[in-house]
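User: My collaborator sent over this chain with a note saying "see what the structure looks like." That's all I know about it. Can you take a look?
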Amino acid sequence: MLRPMQTLAQLQQTNTALSSCGCSSAQKIVRKYKKAHKRRLQKKEYRNLQKIVPTVASKGKISKVTVIEEAIRYIDQLHNALAQRLQSSQDKVKSLKKQKRKRVKKSERPCARKAWSADEKAAVKRHFSKYYYINELPGKAAIEAAMQIEKALINRTWRNCLQLVFRPTSLHISSYYHP
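Assistant: Without extra context I'll predict from the sequence alone. Here is the result:
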């Protein structure tokens, strides 16, 4: 006799064993247990679905149709919420792109470049022309030391001085001249 809690695989093995002996009533019993197993699985899945959907999770017994209808409504709510989030994020991206497109005129820029005076160029040339000839750039410490010595470089940053050293044509350094 078959036990009611057999697994589907055991039922199929039993079915093949009984069908080999030609028992049609055994096939009916196996079909009966397969259907019962399928119903148990369906009920279990409906209970799992009911637990997931918040509107019917706390309710007791509810028809399968109600569970499915509420699940559909819940999915629609989630879909609408996701669509709103995506729309708002796309609007933010569009507004950021518009902000990036706006070009600011050079005269309206907050940090306009300041032209180098002759005194500043001469100070940089005095301290850093040797780096041009050895094809190296001075380090931050060397630039800051020169800035402390030279009063003309007080309003400049070490990066400004480095950029001026990097562009030797602005210092009018001849490649034939060696100090």
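A starting point for your reply to your collaborator: Residues 175-179 have pLDDT under 50 and may be disordered.
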